Predict the structure.
Amino acid sequence: MADSPILELRGVSKSFGAVQALTRVDFAVRAGEVMALVGDNGAGKSTLIKCIGGIHPADGGEVRFEDRTVTISSPKDSSALGIEIVYQDLALCDNLDIVQNMFLGRERLSSFARLDETAMERAAMQTLASLSVTTVRSVRQTVAGLSGGQRQSVAVAKAVMWNSTVVILDEPTAALGVAQTRQVLDLVQRLGEKGLGVVLISHNLHDVFEVADRICVLRLGQKVAEFDAAATNQQEVVEAITAGKVEQVPGMATEATA
Amino acid sequence: MSATAPKPAPAVEAPAASAGASERRRRAVRLATDSTALIFVALLVLLAIFSALKPGAFATVNNLRNISIAAAPLLVLGVGMTFVIITAGIDLSVGSVLVFSGVIAVKVMTALGNSGWGVVVVGTVAAMLTGLAWGLVNGALIAKARIPALIVTLGTLGAGLGGAQLITGGVNLRGVPRELVTVVGVGRLFGVVPWLVAVALVVTVVGAVALRMTRFGRYTFAIGSNAEAARRVGINVDRHLIKVYALSGMLAGLAGMISLARFTNTTIAGHSTDNLQAIAAVVIGGTSLFGGVGTILGTVVGVFIPAVLQNGFVILRVQPFWQEVAVGVVLIAAVYVDQLKRRARDRL
């Protein structure tokens, strides 16, 4: 796990008009690790992932992927790199079944441009099985009939199906009950064990401490701290979230990118 | 992830079989619970009732042919409308586009001498292209200018009909190639199936395959279900919507040609409720006005229920106005069933 980061942001900035949403943020995630991204509302978490996802391309700084400098200017660029983002609202089609949702926009075709339902169904079942998602009764169920945790699982499975290397989860447990949160956290951990780089955005520090290897704290658009999850505690992280010294950022930058 | 890698043949056998089985199960479940099956049974019951009451007049090949011919143009409109409504849209302009396209076709065919198969083909292409153009206008205004479909197509409904009357001076144009009327209009394929019905059948089958088995159909469902989700996975939602309205327009153009073949003139005043009839057929067939749900098979049944009622009432000498009452009741019942299903689903 000590190898070089799979995805690395160096000094990334982003502003919307006069509002500076991100100021020279350094951020890195390695393969096989779960990196938590925490911060108060408006700290820049969403903006950061939107920069990575190509929805709001960064204005300044450098994005490196597998030790190469890359330009991400649209969602297509990021998915071509194998970066998948599971947004908070999941964006699943209720009327479509699990297979149809997982393959939406990337359907497999057989002869005469027909959809290859059998191949897609098989691949969907394999992916779900590889993530140990066993709670769905049938992959031909419509998403409308699934619980929140099942939906989250489908959304994650959809994201990892495409030879993805980095999966970013935006508040995956925000709307879930205890048992379902457990399911999803287990899933997050398994993603890391499969060797993917996982970025977990969460408000719930309890969840973060359960699965994260490292914790990156944003405050007012700047990175104020980065912790090793095993070597810190909730209190320290809360302090960084609420009162982290923003002017520390330049110093931390050199440290993080070393 | 190796999910996309081709698997060696032996390993494929078992999952493929189980995948097929689950697909079959899904179909069985869907059949049992779907309103399409329900409405199909209703159609069969209607057919049985009329057949029992007037076997000599109703249940004859000739009469079924008549019903089918009457249903043919509506079926063609209904196929396009099904796609539109599955995207959670609506197309009120189909009747006017039908008339306008018919007028253009007559103009073109007359200019070419009004005789021969070549002229018929050119006329058909002209009608379909005219319909396509109207559909593109609808689609562009809806998808790009973000004007509600109800308003856009209400506008083109008026503009299309007004345009047709401007071109013709308000008088129906006559004069279509003899081949169109004697062969396509009243002739039969293999001496059995009326040509008009055969054309409608081809459109229906192609539409059903496109809706169920192609990307185009899948994206249509996805957009009606959650347009934002479709956008996020990289589907060009605007372009797809334009295509769907273009399809509806093009089929309206084809229906215009069918109407010409049947009535031999442009029947400008005769299509003012085609749009509502097509929408009613689609909705009776189980397609949800809220989008994301629907089948072409349902639309076929939805077209035939009013057609059978109309025909049966005439044969039974019931005042045909009852047909409109009956269709109204069926329509409201169909939407109510859809609402109940949605409510049951949302409770989950």
Remarks:
- The longest helix of chain A spans residues 178-193.
- Chain A has a mean pLDDT of 83.
- Residues 1-82+165-172+192-258 of chain A form a domain with the Rossmann fold fold (CATH 3.40.50.300).
- The interface with chain B takes residues 75-76, 79, 87, 89, 91-97, 100, 104-107, 109, 113-115, 117-118, 121-123, 125-127, 130, 138-140, 144-145, 160-164 of chain A (CB under 8 Å).
